[in-house]
């Protein structure tokens, strides 16, 4: 027994396995797969591993182009969620040399010494991501006739509709810049909505009014005759406005009604002031020679106002037919 021990010790000193040792590589391969059979160097460590080196929990196993297996330190930058790392074996060591975009498959420099700034700058301009983001901002919308079209969010349209909402509900002009309104829109409707300041809303109001007025002027050019109704309206701020409304038949033989103006009348409601404001609104829309009827409510000042408007607005039907309906009772 002692002679066998001496013989086995001599084998071990020369780096061989003793006769009293079992070959565990076959058992390891059967239990853990073929990669479990790892050749050992004389010190009992896997070949290519320095003595004393360890592997951390953040390391991940990856196969190199040569087919060997080693441990890699996990990349911590969030940019690698959109890129695949490209490794090459240089001077016997595996090094990261590039990065491939997972979306457009474009290869970029990915050396660890170059940082990831250029990779972050690629993400906003990636053509595949840009196309995907555009599609996520679009959705199908039904037309009144049952057909569908692609709806896409447009900030300029949102600003215009905000102006219409404020005007229709008599809201504060600063509602678009409130945190509550922004939270409501971004949560329930559009996550990309941004606050709109009261200064911007004021400019949007002026722009929208100018555009709509130009459209109405163009529409009235093709109209041959117009009937007017007018009344004095009191606002919430205890200010009086004189309204002028046009009634006409359009090119499709449909009756239309359009508000031409609300003029502040902060002076006495006498015939002169009423007639002056009605004449001003009509002139702005080029309708002086197209009026065939003016209807006011039953008031003495309105009767006198019609008498002043008669010679001004008689170009279409003549003074004989321009009627004062102020004194006609509905009963």
TrEMBL record:
Residues 1-11 have a biased composition (Polar residues). Pfam families: zf-BED. The keyword 4Fe-4S does not apply. Residues 48-67 have a biased composition (Low complexity). Residues 1-22, 35-75 are annotated as: Disordered. Residues 74-139 form the BED-type domain. SUPFAM superfamilies: beta-beta-alpha zinc fingers, Ribonuclease H-like. The keyword Nucleotide-binding does not apply. GO terms for molecular function: DNA binding; zinc ion binding. Keywords: Metal-binding, Transcription, Transcription regulation, Zinc, Zinc-finger. It comes from the Eukaryota. This is BED-type domain-containing protein. It comes from Panicum virgatum.
């Amino acid at each position: 027994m002692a002679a066998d021990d001496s013989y086995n010790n001599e084998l071990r000193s020369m780096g061989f396995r003793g006769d009293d040792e079992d070959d565990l590589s076959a058992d390891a391969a059967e239990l853990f797969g073929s990669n479990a059979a790892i050749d050992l160097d004389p010190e009992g460590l896997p070949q290519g591993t320095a003595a004393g080196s360890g592997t951390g929990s953040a390391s991940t196993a990856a196969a190199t182009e040569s087919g060997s297996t080693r441990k890699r330190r996990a990349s911590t930058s969030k940019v690698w969620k959109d890129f695949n790392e490209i490794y090459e074996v240089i001077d016997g060591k595996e090094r990261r040399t590039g990065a491939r975009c997972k979306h457009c498959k474009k290869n970029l420099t990915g050396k660890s010494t170059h940082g990831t700034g250029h990779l972050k700058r690629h993400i906003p301009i990636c053509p595949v991501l840009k196309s995907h983001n555009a599609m996520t901002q679009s959705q199908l919308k039904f037309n009144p006739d049952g057909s569908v079209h692609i709806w896409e969010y447009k900030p300029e349209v949102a600003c215009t509709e905000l102006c219409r909402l404020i005007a229709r509900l008599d809201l504060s002009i600063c509602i678009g810049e409130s945190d509550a309104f922004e939270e409501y829109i971004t949560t329930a409707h559009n996550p990309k909505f941004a606050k709109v300041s009261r200064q911007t809303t004021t400019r949007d109001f002026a722009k929208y009014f100018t555009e709509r007025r130009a459209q109405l002027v163009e529409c009235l050019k093709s109209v041959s005759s117009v009937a007017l109704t007018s009344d004095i309206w009191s606002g919430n701020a205890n200010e009086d406005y004189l309204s002028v409304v046009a009634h006409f038949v359009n090119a499709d033989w449909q009756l239309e009604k359009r508000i031409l103006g609300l003029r502040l009348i902060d002076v006495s409601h006498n015939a002169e002031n009423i007639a002056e404001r009605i004449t001003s609104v009509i002139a702005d829309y080029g309708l002086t020679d197209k009026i065939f009827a003016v209807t006011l409510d039953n008031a003495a000042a309105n009767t006198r106002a019609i008498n002043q408007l008669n010679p001004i607005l008689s170009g279409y039907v003549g003074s004989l037919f321009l009627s004062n309906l102020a004194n006609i009772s509905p009963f």
